[in-house]
Structure formats: C-alpha cells, structure tokens
Amino acid sequence: MSQSNDRRYSKGQTDELQQQIAALSRRQAELTALYEVGKELASTLDPNQLLELILDRAITLVQAERGFLVLCDEASEGFEIAVARQFEPREGGDAEAEISRRLIQNVLTQQEPVITINAQEDPRFMGSDSIVSHHIRSVLAVPLIFQTDLIGAIYVDTRFFLRRFQDTDLALLDAMANQAAVAIHMARLYDSLQTRNEQLEAALAKLRETQDELVKAKQLSTVGKMASSIIHDIKSPLTVIKGYVIFLARDDLATEKRQQVARTVMNAIDTFTGMTQEILDYAHGESTLTLQPVNVGNFVESVCSFLETNFARKGIETQIALAFSDTLVMDAEKMRRVFYNVASNAYDAMEEGGTFTITSDLKDDHVEFHLKDTGPGIPEQIRDTLFEPFVSWGKEHGTGLGLAIARKIVEDHGGYIELVSEDGQGADFIIRLPRTNLPHPAR
User: Fold this and answer.
1) pTM of this prediction?
2) Strand 427-434 with 66-73, pairing
3) Packing angle between helix 47-61 and helix 2-41, nearest 10 degrees?
4) pLDDT score of 366
5) Beta-strand runs (E) in 207-310
6) Do residues 20 and 78 share a domain?
7) Mean pLDDT by groups of 10 residues along the chain of 443 residues
8) Strands 354-363 and 316-322
9) What is d(CA 9, CA 230) in angstroms, rounded to the nearest whole number?
10) Does any domain span residue 440?
C-alpha cells in the first residue's frame, strides 16, 4: 500500500514538474517572439511599411485569423482603418463594415484592452454585422498608446472552428502593442524631421538662386554682399542636423536618447528656418500689398492674443489702450509682421519681465501707433542705424533684419516708423499710417 502511494505521489510530482516545464517553455517562446518582433519593428522607419508589419506580426503572434490596425483621426475625433487583413476579399465590400466599430470605439475611449471567447453571445457585440456574418468566435483588441498619446488600436479575431484566445494571448498582444506604439511614434517623428530638413534645404536652395538677383537691386546691395557669409553660417549647423537625422535611424538607439536628439534637431531647425525665412522676406525686391479695410481694435487684439503665451513665460504683461479703434486701410498680414518684429525686440530686451503696451490715436489723416516696452532702452550708439539691415543688439540669435523688414512694410503703406528711447526708459516705436491708403508703387 505504501509503495502504491509513493508511486502515485511520485507520478503527481512528475506531472506537476512537466506542467511547470511546459509553462516555462511557453513563456520563453513568448518572450523570444516579443524580442524578435521588437527587432523587426525597429528595423524600419517608413510609416506605411511599419503599420503593415505590426498587424502581420500581431496576427502571427496570437495565431489570429483576421486583423485590423486603426489610427485615431483627430479631425473627426474618430478612427480610420490603416491596415486590414480579411478572411477573403469581398467583391464591392467596404472595409468599414467588416469590423465592430462599437468595440473599437470602446477600446479607444476606455484605453483598455478587450477579450471575448464567445463573441456571438457577448452583449458588447450585439447588433454587430461583422460578428454575425463572419461567425466570429474570439476577439482581442488592444489600444496603441505612447506615454499619454493615444495612437490607435490593434484588433484580431478568429472564427468558430479555430482556437479561442486566452488571457495569455491578451497579455502578449498588449505587450507587443506597447512596442508598436513606440515604433509608430518614432517613425512619425523621423518622417517629420525629414520633412523639416527638406524644407530647410529648399529654403537654402531658394536663397542661393536669389543671391545673384539681390546684388542687382540698389537697396538690397548690403544683403547681396552678405548673402554668401549667411549661407555659410547656416550650412554648418545644417550639416550637423543632417548627421543627427541619420543618427536617429540607428536600430540600437535608446528611446530616451532618440527623443533627446529629436528635440535638439527640431529646435535647431526651427531657429535656422526662421532665420532663412527672414532673409528671404527681406530679399524680395518687389512688395505687393493686399489693401483692405481693417478694424484696428480687432487687429490689435489678435496681435496681443498671439503674443501673450510667449510673453507670459518671461513675466511680460501686454496692455492695450486704443483711442482709435475704427477702420484703417492696410495689408493686415504684412502689418501683423511689423508688430511681431517690434514685439520680438521688446521680448528680448525685457529679461526680468515688464510691460509691452500698444496704443493708437488719430492724428489728422494718419493713425499713430505706439509700441512701447519697459526694458532698458536702445543703446544710443545704434539708434540712428537701428532700422538698417543686420543691425541688432542683445541677441544671441537672429539675422538683424526684423526692424529693416518692419520699416520696408510701413513705407510701402505710405507711412513711416521711428524710435523714441532713452537709457533705462524703455523703447517706444511709433508707427504712422495714412487713414485711407492707396497702393504704394511696388519696390
């Protein structure tokens, strides 16, 4: 009797041990599969190719028969199907009708995975044409989330005569979804960097094309003489930026390091794109105004609304005091650039915060604007040349063309701009524009 019990006990131990070994083997296989999937996802930065790869690997990973990858559509606050793997093509069929929209919307809204092993009886699927018509038995759906950003979802299912999904399948697909979300984010970031880099290259090419034309215009002779040196200054950091973009494509780059490099590149591109655009704006010898009646009150309000967020970072308050808020004929977009350029100088001048005030008044047949800051004022030695090209003060970056562009736009309107400033008393830029404007001859 004792020997019989011993044999049964020994067999029980053996069975339990075999089960544990089998479980460990399955877990090892799952981890190996996840590792291989992760390597594959890191091998491409092409967004479309990546989405196809993600769905194919998801279907293989959990042995599903059908699958969809959907992406959030911010414009409609819904989603769109990016990739689909159907049971079989349906002639004249619509992919939207082949998936339970209610389920997907629920996964996106709750940002939680969903599993069902009997979709036909699950109340969450009641009324779903795709579930009924395709005899769907088991469904898995997981959200794609990068940090706090919802990207989309992965949906897979099987029919009655195939396997039912288990909780282990859900955990496996959810883990892969985390890898996929990171890969999609990085691919989008890389695509954005490439686009910005191409834009910067195009701006530089345009600058080179116009260089010969610039030197022919008398009023732009200064720009023509300095264009070569400006291109040289921008070309050097552009080479660095291109190097970082190539660096981002490395498979072994850690996510944190990739994000750090990406932020550095984006900041550099923004800075130099702005400098290039400012040079190009000033370089165009001809200026065509689109003159329309503009409500001064609304115009100034929109300018200050744009400035407030950036100014608030340095503790700068914007104030408006309009004695004249009626209609003025001008090119609103170009005049907005004038106000922004003056405000940019005020922003740089007020390191410890302060106040930026815009006032207006009617002086005979002219409207007079005052754009005044409470900074340290403009140094006396550059007041007379402040509106000349390439003159700047107290800035680490910039082209020195902001106020030159402002003067050109104001003069094209038949008006003029001047500076009133004393040391320690801030700067007051006065802009006078004719109340009723006629198009100024193109220059």
Assistant:
1) 0.43
2) unpaired
3) 170
4) 93
5) 292-295
6) no
7) 57 65 61 72 82 88 89 82 76 53 87 84 68 76 92 88 79 87 88 87 83 58 54 57 72 75 65 60 66 94 84 90 94 88 88 93 93 89 78 57 85 92 87 75 43
8) parallel
9) 86
10) no
pLDDT at position 439: 46
Measured in whole angstroms, how far is the alpha carbon of residue 117 from the centre of its chain? 40
For residues 405 and 311, give the distance between their C-alpha atoms in angstroms, rounded to a whole number: 22
How far does the chain reach from its first CA to its final CA, in angstroms? 113
Residue 211's Cβ-count burial label (10 Å; 0-12, 13-18, 19+) is: middle
193 with 62, same domain: the answer is no
Q: Is residue 441 part of a domain?
A: no
Domain that holds residue 302: 292-434
Last residue of a domain, one of 166, 185, 204: 185
In this structure, are 311 and 422 located in the same domain?
A: yes
User: Look-up: residue for tokens 């395709």?
Assistant: 134
179 and 86 belong to one structural domain:
yes
- What is the C-alpha to C-alpha distance for residues 340 and 335, in angstroms, rounded to an integer? 9
Is residue 271 a contact partner of residue 397, using CB atoms and an 8 Å limit? Answer: yes
Reading the block at residue 155, the tokens are: 């949906």
Tokens of 321: 């005091």
- For residue 67, being part of any structural domain is answered with yes
How many domains does one find in the chain? 4
Single residue among 185, 205, 230 that ends a domain in this structure = 185
Q: How far apart are CA 286 and CA 442, in angstroms?
A: 6
Q: How much is the CA Rg of the chain, to the nearest whole Å?
A: 32
CA 400 to chain CA mean position, Å: 28
In a domain, 439, yes or no: no
